[in-house]
């Protein structure tokens, strides 16, 4: 490819937004001018997917190029349950997994993650142990505040040591929704870009602020500025941050050498109602394997290489970013394992579109598959009646009989088939007796058979929990005099309700 003679910078923006949150995708308030401009200057990918309808597994897939079922980010405690890395989780990213950060590091890159890691918070799982040179952010979500007795507040790290905790040293006001965290994350990014530009070193920046995740926060300059309430304020602040980051690349003359990719780790959470985003025309949201749970807004930006104003329907996933990054850096991943990504360079640079499948997993179960415009569900499930009665609803009252089922329904013998071109909202299943059904299912079954044949599930990381492993005494707490005393170790099987 001849990439060796240019220094390619890589910047991932993982902003936890819904498909319908961008102005360019129809969000009527048009409050994302910078992301809209980024899309207009680059390529908008309309058929881009995450690897899981929940945060931690998607992030592990993004960094390993492998489905969560392979890299271990799932549970076998119960059938088809979403798991992630709350404070009680014992597991995390196994050392046997090779992250894009490790391979880029070997290729001479300087790597930084800013924001939420979510691949495990115990010392052996932290980013500086997995190929990142710098980190400013937190291992878990910014839930809280906690009392530091039953539950510790989440630590904020600078590098390999904590520098404080959310709510204590890094204020987030639950009353007003004010916090300066996004501003801090933007300055960290600008500072990193400046330093790498000065050093003339290739870099990989993974910018993963989590302000759109509840509890929502924005800084004073953005609070109350959106017609969509606090969620809109948050989106406006992140969008502004994207604008400032891209402007800094330009100012340092790095824009034509940097591939910047924006996407989200899961669909907007319908359960958050007005405190969450929009999935546009797609069914349900986060936690589900309907389109609203896994189809993500995605923009690729690389002035002079990616022609402006393009729209692609290439089926693609977060795992493709792994393969794409390695190809650009001239790095070769170990050949002893299966990867689920393919390089997006032919699409990004030449507009090529090729057929390939997308697999939708929930925990240990392959719930659905997409190939071309057809999507077949082998299993359907929103969430159970017990949760529904507590107001937890991953489908926001969108009730499609036989599709948005409150029980796990096994459709393996006669999958529910949708044509996402005619029916992007998965409302009208194709009749099993039709020739269209038979023809489409033949191909989908073939794709699934070949996927299953090569599948070697990893050791599940989300089976065991223990209050003793919470963030009581993170590395660096001694220096600050901020270590907390946790309880005795009492491992138990993590309950995953959905
Ligand atoms: C993080 O650590 C670096 C390197 O030690 C230091 O220069 C920087 O000021 C620290 N940043 C914060 C916000 O603590
Ligand atoms: C954010 O920063 C501003 C300006 O420094 C300060 O006045 C404000 O109190 C900070 N807000 C929080 C929640 O820390
Ligand atoms: C793009 O197309 C050109 C001309 O056909 C070809 O030489 C090049 O290898 C292609 N690049 C990619 C990344 O597919
Ligand atoms: C789902 O249905 C298929 C086909 O009938 C069957 O082989 C499989 O065991 C079922 N799975 C479960 C977990 O019941």
Approximate strand percentage = 15-25%
Heteromolecules bound:
2-acetamido-2-deoxy-beta-D-glucopyranose
- Summing up helix and strand content along with how strands pair, one would put the structural category as alpha/beta
Number of domains: 2
Report the radius of gyration as a whole number of Å: 22 Å
State the fourth-level CATH superfamily of the largest domain. Alkaline Phosphatase, subunit A
Q: Classify the fold: give the CATH topology of the largest domain.
A: Alkaline Phosphatase, subunit A
How is the biggest beta sheet arranged?
A: 10 strands, mixed
Widest sheet: strand ordering? 7-6-5-4-8-1-9-11-2-12
CATH level-1 class of the largest domain: Alpha Beta
Q: What's the end-to-end separation, in Å?
A: 45 Å
Number of strands: 21
Query: What coarse outline follows from CA principal-axis ratios?
Result: globular
What CATH architecture label of the largest domain applies? Answer: 3-Layer(aba) Sandwich
Number of helices: 12
